[in-house]
Write a structure and sequence with these properties.
6 helices, alpha+beta, 10 strands, 21% strand, Helix Hairpins, 39% helix
């Protein structure tokens, strides 16, 4: 065997071992719990939407990874198979077109785009759909730099009550989490959150719910879901809204129906009846139009 053949053989072995190492690393990383949720900050079953969101996210990444591996493999193969050999002169044979290949790389990407569009559109419509007769409707109002919660009369809420939040203070000491504005939700009840702002643009975000919506002055946005796992979840404003944006924190407590009704009763007993409505807004542009 010539030295050139031995060099080529070693190069092929190195490339093969490198490819096996990459595939092995990807396979091992796929065994971790984090990969099952696509490294998202939640798990299926927290709300009626988290499982759907995780499935769409993870399956999209799997499809993209498969396409990437095939593309990278073809690129590397072309680089090796059609590299310029020692002693070669002139240019390789030039091919002006290849109709089957051109049809292939036009139809396949188009098909993939349509598949992605179908599943994304299907899941998005299901996630943003607002039920006509939800069990619980709550008006969530963002303000610099806290939150107000208006529990509106409906199926599971007999009388309107509210809870006004106070801004958290990040001053180097531990935050008393029990003093943060807390939104109570009953487990396994269809819930609609009406999202409004009193002043500037805010954004309602509970990472464990895998959903985020902007809160725009003069416009009501909505989030609809069914909480399916009791627990306490952290929330925050996800839109830069001023000097103390980082202190605009809140919590969500998903509780049993009896505990939810007990919380509403305690607000009523404390005199927090009715709603903290738009008269407390302080956006001058909106005030002038009223």
């Amino acid at each position: 065997m010539s030295s050139q053949d031995r060099t080529g053989s070693r190069r092929v072995k190195v490339i093969s071992l490198t490819g096996l190492a990459v595939v092995g690393a990807l396979a091992l990383s796929g065994c971790t719990p984090e990969t099952k949720t696509g490294w998202l900050p939640s798990s299926p079953g927290v709300t009626s939407n988290t499982g759907r969101i995780i499935d769409l996210w993870v399956n999209s990444w799997i499809a993209v990874l498969v396409v990437g591996v095939v593309t990278w493999g073809l690129m590397i193969w072309c680089i090796i198979a059609y590299r310029r050999r020692k002693g070669a002169v002139g240019f390789p044979k030039q091919v002006s077109y290849n109709l089957p290949l051109e049809i292939f790389y036009t139809i396949i990407p188009l098909f993939m785009v349509l598949v992605f569009f179908f599943f994304t559109d299907r899941d998005t419509k299901a996630i943003v759909a607002i039920p006509a007769n939800p069990d619980v409707t709550i008006d969530v109002v963002g303000k610099q730099w806290s939150w107000d919660f208006n529990y509106l009369p409906g199926n599971d809420i007999k009388d309107a009550v509210y809870e006004g939040g106070v801004q958290a203070h990040l001053n180097g000491t531990a935050i008393d989490m029990n003093k943060l504005p807390t939104l109570y939700l009953p487990v396994n009840k269809t819930t609609v959150l009406q999202l409004n702002s009193r002043d500037v643009i805010h954004s309602f975000w509970v990472p464990a719910f895998l959903e985020k919506r902007d809160m725009i002055p003069g416009k009501t946005n909505y989030i609809s879901f069914t909480p399916t796992a009791e627990g306490t979840y952290e929330g925050k404003c996800a839109e830069l809204c001023g000097e103390y944006h980082s202190e605009m924190l809140f919590r969500v407590k998903v509780v049993s129906d009896s505990e939810f009704q007990s919380h509403l009763a305690s607000l009523k007993t404390a005199g927090y009846t009715g709603s903290l409505d738009a008269k407390y807004d302080r956006n001058p542009d909106l005030t002038d139009k009223k």
